[in-house]
Specification:
The chain is of the alpha+beta class. 48% of the residues lie in helices and 24% in strands. The longest helix has 23 residues, at 2-24.
Length: 172
Amino acid sequence: MWQMIFLNKIKVFSLLLLSFMLFADHGIAEAPEGLDNYCAIREMHIKWEMGLWGSKSYYEKQLRKLLINMLDRDIRTDFDYIPNINRIIVSKKLLPDTYFGKWLYIYGDIEPDSLKGIMDLGKHYIREIETRKYLFAVSGKIKKFRLEDSQRGRILHLHLYSVKLIPHVNKN
C-alpha cells in the first residue's frame, strides 16, 4: 500500500517538475489555465476517440459540454505544431494544415505581435524555422468549435479569436 502512495507522489512530482521546466524559460503568463484547458480537452477527446462501442455518443456529449463551458476561455497547446511559416506570414492566419496531431485543427488570425516577433529576427531565422522544422505552441481564446466524426477520424476544429504562436526555441 505504501509503495502505491510513494509511486503516486513520484508521478505528481514529475508532472509538476515537467510543467515548471516547460514554462520557466518562456515566461508565459496565461500558460497554466490555458494548458489545463488543453489537457482537459485532450483527455475527453481521447475518451471520445477510444471509447468502447456504445460510449461514443456519451463522450461526444461530454466533450461538447466541456467545449461549451470553455468558450471565451484561454487554451494553450503543447509544442506540437510545425507551421509553414511562409504561408502564415502571407495570409496572417493559422491555416488548418498547420498541425502535428491529426485530432485538433486550429483556425484564427495571427496576433500581430506574435508575427512581428518572428519577422523581426530576419529572413535567416524564417529559413531556419522552415529547414529545421521548429515546433510551436498555439494559444488564444476559444471563439467556436466543431466536432467532426468522419472517415478521417474524430477531429475537433477550434476557432480562436486571435492566435499567438509560441516558438519552442527562443532566438534573441
